[in-house]
Design goal:
2 copies of one chain form a homodimer. The first copy, chain A, is an alpha/beta fold and 410 residues long. Chain A folds into 2 domains: 227 residues, Aldehyde Dehydrogenase, Chain A, domain 1 (3-Layer(aba) Sandwich); 144 residues, Aldehyde Dehydrogenase, Chain A, domain 2. Chain A is 41% helix and 21% strand. Chain A contains 14 helices and 16 strands. Chain A has a 7-stranded parallel β-sheet with strand order 10-9-11-8-7-12-13, with helices on both faces. A 4-stranded parallel β-sheet of chain A has the order 5-4-3-6, with helices on both faces. The first copy, chain A, has a 3-stranded antiparallel β-sheet with strand order 1-2-16, with no helix packed on it. Chains A and B meet through helix 2, strand 2, helix 11, helix 14 and strand 13 of A and helix 2, strand 2, helix 11, helix 14 and strand 13 of B. Strand 13 of chain A pairs parallel with strand 16 of chain B. Chains A, B: Its EC number is 1.2.1.41. Chains A, B: GO terms for molecular function: glutamate-5-semialdehyde dehydrogenase activity; NADP binding. Chains A, B: Pfam families: Aldedh. Chains A, B: One of its GO terms (cellular component) is cytoplasm.
Chain lengths: 410, 410
């Protein structure tokens, strides 16, 4: 079936998804993952074999693998989301107007969401569960390497939906994984939202081609600014946590900006601590003489997301230069300041344009669970609708509702 | 100066706009409209003369005209917006996480907004005032017919900004009004948001070409569904108010759907009342025999916005068919039901996908002031970020903020 047909069939069933037993479907999926894991594992084996033959690097094979631990995490996640309060059809802020008309906003699903992802097949369970909780249908286009795994998981979703009395058309996988499928999604005006999650090239392609609303989940070029009034020991811990606690994720730290007045004291400490963790430093001309083994950072490198044990270091004249650097090279994902001066901190918090701005805390906190939202479908770096982690509420919208007794406009 | 240069200059000054005396600029503009109205009027005269020579119909000339009443309305609007509470930099929902990290959301401007409009030159004052109150800069591309008027008004805006100590780069008018300027705006990745307001063709062009987020303000193909349990006298009043109180606006009524059980009683009443107001009826095959002078509605007509004294009438089997008709032909703008049955009403309220859904009230209430938002920049029919009237809050976004004491992720 073509993408368009899949989308049309999903659209026709949207009210049933919103009104049906969505939690029942989530719990049925949890049971099916337990009972029929063998099917998923076998499909995953096929993907892994093909990927090995194609010579995929070990890191990518690891991301592709669905093991016992993944199963447990997925099942636990489904149960957790099922237990969350239902967001739909609540009326917010119902107020009475002078003419007696009662007006408020009702929370409703976005509708049909297109999800283009390149990542781990586990996302096929996680992303759908968040979207479904919010009453949406979902059209998935996963990565080539995970195609068999994704098919097996979507087959289970369809069974789970059926078990709960929901239309199985609510979750579908695009029949192909080529670039053409991405372009087709971009032009499918039947989508209420398109979420691309993946590499820079994919995001840029979708932003250029899409004729439907897009919430991009782009790279995280995240900075820590170490102010002249920073607690340097705290700054050191935050830099280490940001860079090394899990380097391959989008909220990891990519660059440290250091106030010139503390550069001499801070940079040798930073180098020693980072070296002990195997982190390579790339530095600006002012930082280089203060470091023993750093290499010069190239100009074209400053907006790069390494996702690896590499850290850029730059000495700045002060807050002003730090703000300018972040505005120019940052990716509006996560930005942090370390300072004991509240005035400097608040200026940073107010002026930096990023989905999360932190004062004296690690960039690694930009995450749905850490911020108290619960499960998320990714972290939006788009400013509209949802800026930051997208949880269940971010996959709904508010429409206006008016309850009258015959009111006319005069 | 090119659009790109104007946008770059505006972007560079965004923090100053957000932090500056925005209310001061609004009040200065109000004073300048009083003191220097002559300049605006002269520019408007040039536009009117050219339009007359070009043979524009009278309705369009009326829309183009800036008279004393417009001036008064614009001045009053500016003062009203200046008096609204400031939306920026408020921290919402600051909560303490188990690790002591305080997280919340801070309201900040969207940034640089592109506004493409074809309408009355008064929009040059109204739209900018809402955007500026919310701390945004604005790049305008107005219609050809109003170019002199728009230039005069933007010149006053620049003076008002200067008087209040704000950068005059915050408001600019595109140097040309051709289609090329629209396409250039669509591709200007420096924009945080692009708002097209105008005819269907313009909206579709922008949605197709834009590489930045778009909130479309599309046509209103609005229905009133008269249920079998409707108070028919109320239904009649709502239909008349929706269609005739101001036919040329987007929240006017375009079609009435009537339950078959009340069609025989209701349609003759409707025809008589509408005829008295000079409204032409176009009807479905089932409605035709119940009407004296109606003409058949053509199939391709059902999704049309007349903006005129023309009304479509259709007999439906019941709620189900009404919902399906609205889903197919509606434009997600404004939809109303007239019924005394709360069960039917709530199903309509929940299931109809439109920016405002009304029960026993006129579609004409889809308006920022009527819903209690105050001034608006238009009515969004996009589901993301803002669905319905876009006031000051809808032109801001919420970013996450975290206040820590050295917290690291474990």
């Amino acid at each position: 079936m073509s993408l368009r047909e899949l989308a049309e069939r999903a659209r026709a069933r949207l009210p049933e998804v919103a009104k049906g037993d969505r939690n029942g479907a989530l719990l049925a999926m949890a049971r099916l993952l337990e009972a029929r894991w063998e099917e998923v594992r076998e499909a995953n084996e096929q993907d892994l074999e093909a990927a090995q033959k194609a010579g995929l690097p070990k890191a990518k094979l690891d991301r592709l693998r669905l093991d016992e631990r993944t199963r447990k995490d997925l099942v636990a996640g489904l149960k957790e989301i099922a237990a969350l309060p239902d967001p739909l059809f609540r009326l917010e802020g119902l107020a009475k107007r002078p003419n007696g008309l009662r007006v408020g906003r009702m929370r409703v699903p976005l509708g049909l969401i297109g999800f283009i992802y390149e990542s781990r097949p586990g996302a096929t369970v996680e992303a759908v569960s968040v979207a479904l909780k919010a009453g949406n249908a979902m059209l998935l286009r996963g990565g080539k390497e995970a195609f068999q795994s994704n098919q097996a998981l979507v087959a289970l979703w369809k069974e789970a939906l059926k078990e709960a009395g929901l239309p199985e058309e609510a979750v579908s996988l695009a029949p192909t994984t080529d670039r053409e499928a991405v372009l087709e999604m971009c032009r499918l005006e039947l989508l209420d939202l398109l979420i691309p999650r993946g590499g820079e090239e994919l995001i840029r392609l979708v932003q250029k081609e899409a004729r439907v609303p897009v919430l991009a989940h782009a790279k995280g070029v995240n900075h820590l600014y170490v102010d002249e009034r920073a607690d340097l020991m705290m700054a050191l811990r935050l830099a280490l946590n940001g860079k090394t606690q899990r380097p391959a994720v989008c909220n990891a730290l990519e660059a440290v900006l250091v106030h010139e007045k503390v550069a001499e004291a801070f940079l040798p400490l930073l180098e020693e601590a980072m070296r002990a963790k195997g982190v390579e430093l790339r530095a600006c001309p002012r930082a280089l003489p203060l470091l023993k083994e750093a290499v010069p950072a190239k100009e074209e490198e400053w907006d790069r997301e390494y996702l690896d044990l590499v850290l850029r270091v730059k000495v700045v004249e002060g807050l002003e230069e730090a703000l300018q650097h972040i505005a120019r090279y940052g990716s509006r994902h996560t930005e942090a300041i370390c300072t004991e001066d509240p005035r400097t901190a608040w200026r940073f918090l107010e002026e930096v344009d990023a989905s999360l701005v932190l004062w004296n805390a690690s960039t690694r906190f930009n995450d749905g669970f850490q911020l108290g939202l619960g499960a998320e479908i990714g972290i939006s770096t788009s400013k509209l609708h949802a800026y930051g982690p997208m949880g269940v509420l971010e996959l709904t919208t508010l429409k206006w509702v008016a309850l009258g007794e015959g009111q006319e406009r005069t």
